[in-house]
Specification:
alpha+beta; Aminopeptidase; eight-stranded mixed sheet; two-stranded antiparallel ribbon; 7 helices
Length: 208
């Protein structure tokens, strides 16, 4: 059996991957906790102008409590279907540790064999246009490509979600498809847009 055949059978992603905190210039990304969701009525996660666009599974806050607990408790990626959710905190500028959660962002293994990873996010509208979502997403893309060894990272979003579509453009992602009326939500049909980024595009000299 050749090494190439072995690699294909074993999968192309560098699994398992252990979660950890990530730091950027303005942000701290840490594993999402149950406490974050228990306070969601006070923050972005229950705003009608935010949740109407949530399509990806990690943000299904209405799922059974035991399933949600399992998602939050997951600390490593080991197989297809595993996902890690990070709370995104805006670091205080006064030197204190009183950081404010402004959103959350996720990586999910969709195909270990084909090195396909999904990214998803949700941010408070008050921070839109300030570059924080871009900063957080770039940090997770670096993890996906540099550490997990992803070949392609993609995002699925409601086609009407202009803010997320702009973020995909900023990240250099290509709009690969629009799936017409794929999701039936609250009595209405919604189109789903798929944006993708290949490793070679991520590493291109003009990617920044």
């Amino acid at each position: 059996m050749t090494s190439e055949t072995t690699a294909t059978r074993a999968g192309l992603l560098a699994l398992p991957f252990e979660t950890r905190e990530l730091a950027t210039e303005h942000l701290r990304l840490r594993p999402l906790t149950r406490a974050d969701l228990e306070h969601r009525s006070e923050n972005y996660q229950k705003r009608s102008d935010v949740v109407r666009y949530l399509r990806w599974e990690a943000h299904d806050h209405e799922e059974p409590a035991e399933n949600l607990e399992k998602r939050i408790a997951l600390e490593r990626l080991t197989r297809n279907g595993d996902g890690l959710i990070f709370a995104v905190e805006l670091c205080a500028t006064d030197g204190s540790t009183d950081h404010r959660v402004i959103g959350d962002i996720s990586l999910s293994v969709k195909s270990d064999r084909d090195a396909q990873v999904e990214i998803g996010w949700v941010f408070h509208p008050a921070v839109h246009g300030r570059g924080f979502a871009t900063e957080a997403a770039k940090a997770l893309l670096a993890v996906a490509f540099d550490e997990l060894g992803a070949h392609r990272v993609y995002a699925e979003l409601d086609a009407a979600n202009e803010a997320s579509a702009r973020l995909c453009d900023i990240l250099g992602m290509t709009r690969e498809a629009t799936l017409r009326e794929r999701d039936h939500v609250d009595g209405d049909w919604h189109d789903v847009a798929i944006f993708g980024l290949l490793e070679r595009e991520f590493r291109a000299p003009n990617a920044e």
